[in-house]
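Field log, afternoon session.

UNIT: design team B
ACTIVITY: writing a sequence onto a fixed backbone
BACKBONE:
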């Protein structure tokens, strides 16, 4: 009974922390597309001058870059989890806020890598559809409000927080013990970003392949030579 009460309380704390963290990330975290495009060219060797150019790049190459992006996010998340985890339960909320920011940046980078920008409200909504997919959340009902981003995104964030808190509460309960919490925090953050990153990669990859097929099926305009 006491264990159930403790876990219910911890789940509420985690849910609240994730919801606040993702809401803050939604308002403040955004990968700069132009800088990331330069990074794709210089650091990852993609021969592209725009994000439309990724549809001409071998999909295997994009997948390799996606895995490197996810691994980078995992390492950053693990380092943050180890540092803040020393404080045990006291640092759960700030840790979750940072974790939400790292996760969202990873999702944004994967979105851009596979050719999906997020400049318009519609594109922003699609980004959060991907975030929900990464969290394993069914948002079929919320999709009716996708056109109203200011209402849509907070509802998706709430659903993500509920789902994610249920996923981690059993494992994160170990952070009640400060001595072990540093290693636990590092490990959980690492695997949290890995799981979400892989699901987001699958989501964007499937959309990319579908759009690539559409582009390939379009007839190429014939050039008529002048007489």
């Amino acid at each position: 009974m006491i264990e159930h009460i403790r876990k219910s309380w911890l789940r509420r704390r985690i849910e609240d922390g994730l919801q606040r963290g993702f809401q803050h990330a939604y308002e403040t975290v955004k990968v700069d597309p132009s800088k990331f495009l330069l990074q794709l060219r210089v650091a990852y060797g993609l021969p592209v001058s725009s994000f439309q150019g990724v549809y001409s790049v071998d999909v295997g190459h994009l997948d390799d870059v996606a895995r490197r992006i996810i691994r980078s996010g995992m390492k950053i998340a693990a380092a943050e989890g180890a540092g803040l985890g020393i404080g045990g339960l006291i640092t759960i909320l700030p840790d979750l806020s940072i974790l939400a920011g790292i996760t969202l940046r990873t999702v944004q980078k994967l979105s851009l890598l596979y050719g999906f920008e997020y400049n318009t409200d519609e594109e922003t909504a699609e980004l959060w559809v991907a975030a929900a997919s990464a969290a394993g959340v069914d948002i079929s009902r919320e999709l009716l409000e996708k056109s109203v981003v200011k209402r849509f995104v907070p509802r998706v964030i709430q659903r993500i927080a509920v789902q994610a808190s249920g996923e981690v509460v059993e494992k994160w309960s170990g952070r009640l013990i400060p001595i072990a919490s540093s290693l636990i925090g590092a490990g959980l953050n690492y695997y949290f970003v890995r799981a979400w990153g892989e699901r987001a990669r699958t989501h964007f990859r499937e959309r990319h392949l579908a759009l690539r097929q559409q582009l390939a099926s379009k007839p190429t305009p014939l050039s008529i030579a002048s007489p």
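LOG NOTE: The two ends are 89 Å apart (CA to CA).
NEXT ACTIVITY: expression trials, pending approval
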